[in-house]
Design a protein that fits this description.
Elements: H1 21-29, H2 34-39, H3 41-46, H4 50-72, H5 74-78, H6 82-85, H7 87-90, H8 96-124, H9 130-147, H10 149-183, H11 194-210, H12 229-257, H13 267-272, H14 277-304, H15 311-329, H16 334-344, H17 348-361, H18 376-389, H19 404-408, H20 415-432
Helix pairs in contact: 1-10, 1-12, 4-11, 4-12, 8-9, 8-14, 8-15, 8-16, 9-14, 9-15, 10-12, 10-14, 14-15, 17-20, 18-20
Length: 434
C-alpha cells in the first residue's frame, strides 16, 4: 500500500487502471452521511405533506446527481483533477478564484463533518472530551487521504457495504416501529406557501449533492481514457442518487417520529433506545467516508493555486486547519458556518455549466494544450450569470438580504438554475459568434 505520488499532474495512460463500477461504490458511501440524513428534517419543519416531500427530494436528487455525474465523466478523458480541468475554460490564473472557493468549501465541509461526527461519537462515549473525539476522527481521515486515490476507492468500497447494511437496518427499524405514525402523518402548517416550501426542499436536496461536482474527476482521472462517458455517468449518478435520496427520506421519516427532537443526532437514542445506537455508528462512519473526499480534494485545490508543496503535506495542513476550526466552531457558530457554506454553493452551477459547454459541446477535450492565463469569455459569462441570479437568492439572515424575485415566490430558490442557464447560454453564444 504505497502513498500516491501524483498530485495534479496528468495521469499517463500506462498507469491508468480500474473500472467505472468503482465510481458507484465511492459516491454511494460518501453520500450515506449525516448531512443527507439531517437534510430530511427540513421539509418536515416546513410543514410539507409526505408525498410532496418525497417528490421534491426525488427531483432535487435526480438533478443534483446528474450535475455530479457529468463532472465525473470528464476525468478519464482528461486525466486531471476537476479544478485542473477548469483551467482550460477560465485560464490558469483566472481559475484561481474557483480553486480558492473550492479550498474554502472543502475545508468548511470537513469542519462541519468533524463537528457533527464527534457529536455522534459522544453519544456512544459521553465521557469523551470533544477535542479527543475530533482529533481521533481527523487522524483517521488524514491518513486515508495521504495514501490517496487507490486507498480512498478501496475504503469507500468497503464502507459502501458497511454503511449500506447499517442504514438498511435503520430503515427497517424506522418503518417497522413507526409505520402507523408515518402513514397517518399530518404536517403542522407554518402559514407559508406549500409550493414555495416544495421549491425550498427541492433546492436544498439539489444543492447538497450538486456541491460534489468540483470533486468529480478527482476520483475518476486514473480510469482508462477509453472509459465510455455513459458508464462513468451512470455509475456516478446511481451511487450519489441512491445514497442521498435514501438518507434524506430516512431523515424525513425519523423527523416525523420525533417532531420535538432538538437535533437530528439526539433523536436516535431518544426515539429508538439501544436500537438507535447502530444508526449512530453509521452516522460516525458516514462522516469519515465523506470527509476523506473533502480533505483529499482540499489538497488538490491548493495545488491548483500553485502552492509549492507536496500533496500529503497539504492534506496534513488541511486536516490541522479543519481540526482547529472544529474546536472553535463546535460551541460558537456551527449553524452559522453551515449556512455560510451553503451560500458558497452558489458559485458551482455557472462554473460547471461553462466547463460542460467546453467539454461536451465545443469538444475541447485535449489535455495536451497549454491553458491561457485568463479566458475572458468564460469569466464575463460567469459574472453576468451570477449577477442576474442574485435576484433569485432567498433570505440570508446574517447578510440581511433577500432577492426581490425570491421574495415574490415565497422564498423559493431558483438561483442555481438561473445562473447555470445564463452563464452556459452566454458562453456558448460567445464561442459560436467568435
Amino acid at each position: 500500500m504505497a502513498i500516491e505520488k501524483i498530485g495534479i499532474e496528468h495521469v499517463p495512460e500506462r498507469i491508468r487502471h480500474g473500472k467505472a463500477s468503482q465510481l458507484f461504490t465511492l459516491w454511494l458511501a460518501s453520500n450515506l452521511t449525516i448531512a443527507d440524513y439531517a437534510l430530511g428534517f427540513l421539509p418536515v419543519s416546513l410543514g410539507l405533506p409526505l408525498p410532496a416531500i418525497i417528490l421534491a427530494l426525488l427531483i432535487g436528487n435526480v438533478l443534483g446527481s446528474l450535475f455530479l455525474a457529468v463532472s465525473v465523466a470528464m476525468g478519464p478523458r482528461m486525466g486531471y483533477p476537476q479544478m485542473s480541468i477548469s483551467r482550460w475554460s477560465f485560464g490558469r490564473r483566472g481559475n484561481y478564484f474557483f480553486a480558492t472557493l473550492n479550498w474554502v468549501s472543502t475545508a468548511g465541509w470537513f469542519t462541519i463533518n468533524v463537528i457533527l461526527g464527534t457529536f455522534a461519537l459522544q453519544i456512544l462515549l459521553p465521557w469523551m472530551p470533544f477535542y479527543v473525539g475530533a482529533l481521533a476522527t481527523v487522524i483517521v481521515e488524514v491518513l486515508l487521504a495521504i495514501f490517496g486515490y487507490d486507498v480512498i476507492h478501496g475504503f469507500e468500497k468497503f464502507m459502501s457495504v458497511i454503511l449500506g447494511a447499517l442504514f438498511m437496518f435503520a430503515t427497517l427499524l424506522v418503518v417497522n416501529q413507526g409505520y402507523r405514525v408515518i402513514s397517518s402523518f399530518s404536517p403542522n402548517t407554518t402559514g407559508g406557501s406549500e409550493l414555495a416550501f416544495f421549491a425550498i426542499t427541492l433546492a436544498a436536496a439539489f444543492s447538497y449533492v450538486m456541491s460534489w461536482s468540483p470533486y468529480g474527476s478527482d476520483y475518476s482521472r486514473y480510469l482508462p481514457e477509453t472509459t465510455p462517458y455513459r458508464t462513468s455517468i451512470l455509475n456516478s449518478f446511481l451511487g450519489a442518487f441512491i445514497a442521498s435520496f435514501w438518507l434524506e427520506v430516512l431523515g424525513t421519516l425519523v423527523a416525523i417520529l420525533a417532531p420535538s427532537a432538538s437535533n437530528a443526532i439526539s433523536t436516535l437514542p431518544a426515539a429508538f433506545g439501544i436500537l438507535g445506537m447502530p444508526i449512530v455508528v453509521a452516522i460516525i462512519l458516514g462522516g469519515v467516508a465523506a470527509n476523506v473526499l473533502n480533505i483529499y480534494t482540499n489538497a488538490l485545490s491548493a495545488l491548483v493555486l500553485d502552492v509549492k508543496a507536496k500533496r500529503w503535506i497539504l492534506v496534513v495542513f488541511g486536516g490541522c486547519f479543519g481540526f482547529l476550526l472544529a474546536i472553535y466552531g463546535a460551541p460558537n457558530f456551527g449553524r452559522f458556518y453551515e449556512q455560510f457554506l451553503l451560500l458558497l454553493d452558489y458559485w458551482i452551477t455557472p462554473w460547471l455549466g461553462i466547463i460542460v459547454v467546453d467539454f461536451f459541446v465545443l469538444k475541447r477535450t485535449s489535455s495536451t494544450s497549454t491553458p491561457s492565463n485568463f479566458s475572458w469569455r468564460a469569466i464575463i459569462s460567469y459574472v453576468i450569470g451570477v449577477l442576474i441570479s442574485v435576484a433569485f437568492i432567498p433570505s440570508i439572515s446574517y447578510l440581511n438580504f433577500e432577492g426581490p424575485v425570491a421574495r415574490l415566490v415565497g422564498g423559493a430558490d431558483f438561483s442555481y438554475f438561473v445562473s447555470f442557464l445564463v452563464s452556459t447560454g452566454l458562453y456558448y453564444l460567445a464561442n459560436r459568434t467568435a
